[in-house]
């Protein structure tokens, strides 16, 4: 019996010794997970800023949100490097363009398609954004909720936008107002929301006014 106990103890000691040796031999491997500040490039992949520069990749957008919810489409969002020039949400008033009107929904992609496809009026804004579709990516106008996410990460991602040759998200009060893709509930036929990237405020605005937009893209791989 004593010999059996001794043999078991010896086996345990040998196993522990092997385990400790394995721990000593552990190597750190590069963390390839997508992070805020990573760069979406024309090769349809997301890279660190170091990889972009070292491998001379062509940047498109900067990651500003990583999705942790199964209820939200995609793996995260990236913001384009430059604005869309000031233009109108719609070319006429009096037409509901079918957005959700929700200020909490992350639904800019669906909203943009709705305002683009409305038959009774056209959307110069959506048409401008759709011109950016290339390299397998689908640009769209962020919803109010998506603009909130972008605003919350502005100071984090601006250095990466600048490093990629883009236009930083503004701090100046006279440069800060951007179209969202969200119509105003109860006034959807005439107004949509502007969002301030200087203060995080919102402003009901007639759709025929010209304002800029900063497109984003959903990352799906």
What does this protein look like?
- The chain is α+β, with helices and mostly antiparallel strands and 221 residues long.
- The chain is 29% helix and 22% strand.
- The protein has helices spanning 2-24, 49-54, 108-117, 124-130, 144-152, 154-163; strands spanning 39-41, 46-47, 59-66, 76-80, 84-88, 177-183, 191-196, 202-206, 210-213, 216-219.
- The strands form 3 sheets. The chain has a 5-stranded antiparallel β-sheet. The protein has a 3-stranded antiparallel β-sheet with strand order 6-7-8.
- A hairpin with a 7-residue loop joins strand 6 (177-183) and strand 7 (191-196).
- Helix 3 (108-117) crosses helix 4 (124-130).
- It is globular.
What topology does this entry show?
Elements: H1 2-24, E1 39-41, E2 46-47, H2 49-54, E3 59-66, E4 76-80, E5 84-88, H3 108-117, H4 124-130, H5 144-152, H6 154-163, E6 177-183, E7 191-196, E8 202-206, E9 210-213, E10 216-219
Antiparallel strand pairs: 1-2, 1-3, 3-4, 4-10, 5-9, 6-7, 7-8
Alpha-carbon Rg, integer? 24 Å
Please state how the strands of the largest beta sheet are arranged side by side: 2-1-3-4-10
- C-alpha geometry: globular
Proportion of residues in β-strands = 15-25%
Count the DSSP helices: 6
What's the main sheet like? 5 strands, antiparallel
In total, the number of strands is: 10
Unreliable runs? 2-31
Helix content: 25-40%
Distance between the termini: 59 Å
Structural class: alpha+beta
